[in-house]
Amino acid sequence: MAGSSGVTSVGTIVEGIAWAISHRVADNIRVLNLSLGEEPESASVLDPLDEAVEQAWHAGIVVVTTAGNSGPNVGTITSPGNDPLVITVGAIDDDDTTNAADYSMSSFSGAGPTRFDGWFKPDVVAPGSSVVSLAAPGSTVDNNYPSARIGSSNFEGSGTSFSAAIVSGKLHSCCQRTDALT
């Protein structure tokens, strides 16, 4: 939905969600990851991104999105993560340990309750600090952060976009919404 710069418009995102809805049966789309967000300007019932994700939810698609990277203050959950029907994912920092007792919320992770509606968000948290992922050579991120490169095909980054992608992948691989729930 976004070019190599990472920039897109709300209209393009809404069109992409509509495409996913119209292709959900033919392409077996059950989970939709939206690793994006913008500061909400109104209650979720008036927000076009929230309206689009609710249409996807009503069509039987589980929508996973970010809490945003404007935390840690309350009211910093971004849209469409401020919608009550989506799974909003915040970021934790595992402090390079496997002991969950040492984990903490990442200081950048958006926090609720949501600004206009008061929804308790995020719904879940997942790793979001210093995550190793696939690189997109030539992208804005790749060009602006060469020190984050790990070899020729990976990079290390932080943000709730990583967290939402991790949860989306887990849902897709083991816990997909079934037709019985639609």
Describe this structure in words.
With 182 residues, the chain is α/β, with parallel strands linked by helices. The chain has a single domain (10-129, 157-181), classed as 3-Layer(aba) Sandwich (Rossmann fold), CATH 3.40.50.200. Helix content is 24%, strand content 18%. The protein is built from 4 helices and 8 strands. Strands 1, 2, 3, 4 and 5 form a 5-stranded mixed beta sheet that branches. Strand 7 (149-150) and strand 8 (154-157) form a beta hairpin. Helix 1 (10-22) runs parallel beside helix 2. The longest helix has 15 residues, at 160-174. It is globular and about 40 Å long. It starts with 9 loop residues before the first helix and ends in an 8-residue tail after the last helix. The mean pLDDT is 90.
At CATH level 2, the architecture is 3-Layer(aba) Sandwich
| Share of helical residues | 10-25%
Regions with little confidence, pLDDT below 50 for 5+ residues: none
What is the terminal-to-terminal distance?
Answer: 26 Å
Structural class assignment: alpha/beta
Query: What's the helix-strand series?
Result: HEHEEEEEHEEH
Bin the strand percentage.
15-25%
Main β sheet profile: 5 strands, mixed
**What is the count of distinct domains?**
1
Determine the CATH topology: Rossmann fold
As a whole number of angstroms, the C-alpha radius of gyration is 16 Å
Average of pLDDT: 90
* CATH class category name: Alpha Beta
Classified in CATH, the superfamily is Peptidase S8/S53 domain
